[in-house]
């Protein structure tokens, strides 16, 4: 199922500079695999053996996937996924 | 009400119902007016607690220099505490913050070291750590990792909410240092098992996420994911729209970070209505709108305000 993925500046070298790309999958993990097939190398910047990398936040329709089902979070048609590096506030 | 000094006024803020913004009589929103603290923000609680702890630990002496990376409010709060207690304060603040923030900091007697806009608060933290290493006699309270920050909310904000709203079902606050959510969230979870703790995280423009590599990412040492039940990312459009709605509908004049929090609070309120559940949702009003007038947050269309805030640290 096609979803829209927003790519942060720091990962755009992988997507040829594209800010928003399409990917498919029924779960977040599937979407990341599909992204990696389309843009080789981007997958390992997002996940490591333990799951989502510590300094990477992924939001499904503005909700942090760590509080959904993580990489197993189901993804539906027309969902929007946003990837952002973790930054400080305060 | 009479107090011995300004610092004795910190905390004890009003919890105000929002009869017009609450979706139904069964699903109620309550605003904790932290702008009623002495310097006008929730950060007064953490600043006072961190200085008191450092004094207790014997780290401070008359004339000592405090150092803090801050996007504004914590620095302003520390400036007043420092002035009252006889310390010097140096703040490292990103240059993409509102003009009022640096004006207020200087007016309250702090010295401001600007850090570059790219990288936002991450860069301010990096510069402050470098300054701390160069000046070993300075005391960096370091709000992101200082237990007294979260403890202030565990001991004051959380209990105040529970006392005023014993039926609280949801607590919604902004995610920056994570101190408010960790402290008040932990307290409310212990006191009322099943309470939902919801974080509203500001989503800034691209400039702020302009790290050189992902290893420069930052997660505050205070952050414990298990305290939260949900974490929402809220962009400037929704933040400004809700901030203005709060003023137009309920008369509460707040800053954009409060708009982001209200957006998340209305999200959980509407979910409770859909599920047919009763809810008492308490959320934090971080500060008043005064410091953001120059940014255009209250001027013109929401789209224009969003454009003006792009690249700014608006929360």
Could you say how many structural domains of chain B there are in total? 2
Tally of separate domains of chain A:
1
CATH architecture of the largest domain in chain B: 3-Layer(aba) Sandwich
Strand fraction of chain A? 25-35%
What is the global morphology of chain A?
Answer: globular
What's the short version?
The complex is a heterodimer of chains A (90) and B (315). Chain A is an alpha+beta fold and 90 residues long.
Write the layout of secondary structure elements.
The complex is a heterodimer of chains A (90) and B (315).
Chain A (H helix, E strand, L loop, with lengths): L1 E5 L13 E5 L3 H11 L3 H5 E2 L2 E2 L3 E5 L2 E2 L15 E6 L5
Chain B lengths: L14 E3 L9 E7 L9 H14 L8 E5 L3 H13 L2 E7 L4 H9 L3 E5 L4 H15 L4 E2 L6 H18 L5 E5 L4 H13 L4 E7 L27 E5 L1 H15 L5 H19 L4 E7 L16 H8 L6
Parallel strand pairs in B: 2-10, 3-4, 3-6, 4-5, 7-8, 7-10, 8-9
Antiparallel strand pairs in B: 1-2
Question: Can you walk through the features of this model?
Answer:
The complex is a heterodimer of chains A (about 90) and B (about 325). The mean pLDDT of chain A is about 95. In chain A, the strands form two sheets. A five-stranded mixed sheet of chain A has the order 2-1-7-5-6, covered by helices on one side. Helices cover about 20% and strands about 30% of the residues of chain A. The N and C termini of chain A lie far apart (about 40 Å). Chain A has a single domain, classed as Beta-grasp domain (Ubiquitin-like (UB roll)), CATH 3.10.20. Chain A is built from two helices and seven strands. The longest helix of chain A has 11 residues. With about 90 residues, chain A is α+β, with helices and mostly antiparallel strands. Chain B is an alpha/beta fold and about 325 residues long. Chain B has two domains: about 180 residues, Rossmann fold (3-Layer(aba) Sandwich), CATH 3.40.50; about 100 residues, Rossmann fold (3-Layer(aba) Sandwich). Chain B is built from nine helices and ten strands. Chain B has a six-stranded mixed sheet. In chain B, helix 6 links the parallel strand 7 and strand 8. Chain B is globular, with a radius of gyration of 19 Å. The two termini of chain B are about 30 Å apart. The interface between A and B is medium-sized, with 23 and 43 residues.
């Amino acid at each position: 199922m096609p979803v829209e993925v927003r790519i942060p500046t720091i990962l755009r070298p992988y997507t040829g500079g594209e800010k928003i790309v399409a990917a498919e999958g029924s779960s977040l993990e599937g979407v990341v695999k599909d992204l990696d097939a389309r843009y080789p190398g981007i997958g390992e910047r997002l996940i490591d053996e333990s799951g989502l990398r510590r300094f990477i936040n992924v939001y499904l329709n503005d909700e942090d996937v760590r509080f959904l089902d993580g990489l197993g979070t189901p993804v539906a048609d027309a969902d929007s996924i946003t990837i952002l590096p973790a930054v400080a506030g305060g | 009400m009479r107090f011995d000094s300004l610092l004795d006024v910190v905390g004890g803020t009003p919890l105000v119902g929002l009869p017009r913004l609450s979706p139904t009589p069964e699903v109620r929103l309550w605003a904790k007016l932290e702008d009623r603290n002495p310097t006008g923000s929730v950060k007064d609680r953490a600043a006072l607690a961190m200085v008191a702890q450092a004094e207790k630990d014997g780290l401070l002496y008359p004339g000592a220099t405090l150092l803090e990376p801050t996007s504004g409010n914590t620095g302003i709060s520390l400036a007043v505490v420092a002035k009252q207690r006889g310390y010097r304060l140096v703040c490292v603040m990103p240059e993409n913050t509102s003009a009022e923030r640096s004006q207020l900091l200087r007016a309250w007697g702090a010295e401001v070291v600007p850090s570059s806009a790219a990288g936002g608060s991450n860069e301010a933290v990096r510069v402050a750590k470098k300054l701390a290493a160069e000046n070993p006699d300075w005391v960096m309270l370091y709000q992101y990792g200082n237990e007294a920050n979260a403890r202030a909310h565990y001991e004051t904000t959380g209990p105040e909410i529970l006392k005023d709203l014993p039926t609280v079902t949801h607590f919604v606050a902004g995610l920056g240092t994570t101190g408010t959510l960790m402290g008040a969230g932990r307290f409310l979870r212990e006191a009322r098992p099943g309470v939902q703790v919801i974080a509203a995280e500001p989503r800034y423009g691209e400039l702020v996420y302009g790290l050189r590599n992902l290893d420069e990412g930052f997660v505050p040492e205070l952050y414990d994911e298990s305290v939260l039940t949900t974490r929402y990312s809220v962009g400037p459009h929704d933040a400004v729209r809700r901030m203005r709605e709060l003023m137009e509908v309920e008369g509460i004049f707040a800053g954009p970070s409060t708009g982001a929090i209200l957006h998340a609070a209305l999200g959980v309120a509407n979910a409770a209505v859909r599920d047919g559940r009763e809810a008492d949702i308490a959320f934090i009003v971080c500060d008043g709108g005064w410091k953001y007038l120059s940014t255009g947050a209250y001027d013109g269309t929401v789209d224009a305000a969003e454009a003006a805030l792009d690249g700014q640290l608006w929360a």
